[in-house]
Amino acid sequence: MGENNKAMYGKMILDVVIGPLLESLEKKDKSSAQTLRASFSKVDTTVPGFVHDFLRGILKKADIQDHFDICETLLRLGDAQGYDASKTTPSGAAMHPSSKELRLLRPEPSFQELNRCATNLKTILSRIPIQIDDRKQFLETIKEIAGSIKHLLDAFNKVIAEIPGGDNGSKQILEDRKKEFVRYSKKFSNMLKAFFRDGSQRQSVFLSANYLIFQTNVILRTVKQETERE
Predict the structure, then answer these.
(1) Domain 99-230's class?
(2) 150 φ, ψ to 5°?
(3) Secondary structure tally for the chain: helices H, strands E
(4) pLDDT 10s digits, 66-91
C-alpha cells in the first residue's frame, strides 16, 4: 500500500470511525473527547498514516487483519457522519445528520445545499461495493454519481460566488479545492472505464471512490475553515 493511500485512509478512519465515537463521548465528557480528537489529528498530521497503522495494529492484535478489507469497509462507511440508530443510509451505515466535523453550519441556502449535495454523493458512492457485481444496477449508480458530482460542483460554485474577494485568499483556496475535486472525479471516471474493459479493477474502483469521498470531505472542511471563523 502506498504512503499516500495510507494517509488518505487515516483521514477517513478519523472521519467515519473515530470521529463518530468521539462525538458520542462528547455527550458524557466533552473535554476528554476534544483532547482525544486533537491528539489523533495532530499525530496523524505529523506522521501521515498513523491512524491507519493504529487500526491495523488493533486488527492484528485481534487476529482478524486478514479478514478485514479496510478499503471496502471505509467505502461502505463513507457516508457515515456519526451514529444514530433511527437513521440509516442505503448502504446500511448509521448516519447522524448533525455531525459537526463534516457539516456546514452557516444557514444560507447555498451552504445548506452544499451540505445536501455532499451527503448525497457520499451516500451513492458508499453503495458501490453492494452494486458493483450487478452490471445493470451499477450502470444506473454510475449515472447517479455523475449527476451528483455535477450538483455538488454547482452548489460549490454558488458558495464560492458568495465569498467576498479580499486579502485573506479564501476565494482562491476554495477554487483550488474545486480543481482538486475535479481532478479526482476524472480519475474515478477513468478507473470505471478500465473496470468495464476487463473487470479486474474492482479494488481500484473502491480506492478511487474513497478518494472522491475524501475530496468531498476536504471541500466541506475547507469551506468551514474559510467561512466559519470565530
Answers:
(1) mainly alpha
(2) -60, -45
(3) 10, 0
(4) 777 889 999 998 876 533 333 444 44
Distances (CA, A) of 53 to 34, 156, 214, 219: 22, 33, 18, 25
Q: Which residues contact 64 (CB under 8 A, 6 or more apart)?
A: none
Q: Single out the residue of 140, 117, 150, 135 nearest to residue 220, CA to CA.
A: 117
Domain boundaries of the chain, sorted by first residue: 99-230
Q: How many residues does the chain have?
A: 230
**What's the rounded Cα separation, in Å, for the pair 155 and 168?**
22
| Whole-angstrom distance, CA of residue 60 vs CA of residue 20 | 23
pLDDT confidence of residue 207: 95
Taking the model in full, what pTM does it have? Answer: 0.84
pLDDT of res. 88 = 43
For 166, residues 6+ apart whose C-beta sits below 8 A from its C-beta are none
pLDDT at 11 over 80: yes
Specify which residues 94 forms β-bridges with.
Answer: 88
Q: How far apart are CA 56 and CA 17, in angstroms?
A: 13
Closest by CA to 55, choosing from 74, 38, 78, is 74
- Cα–Cα distance between 100 and 104 in angstroms, integer? 8
Q: What percent of the chain has pLDDT over 90?
A: 51
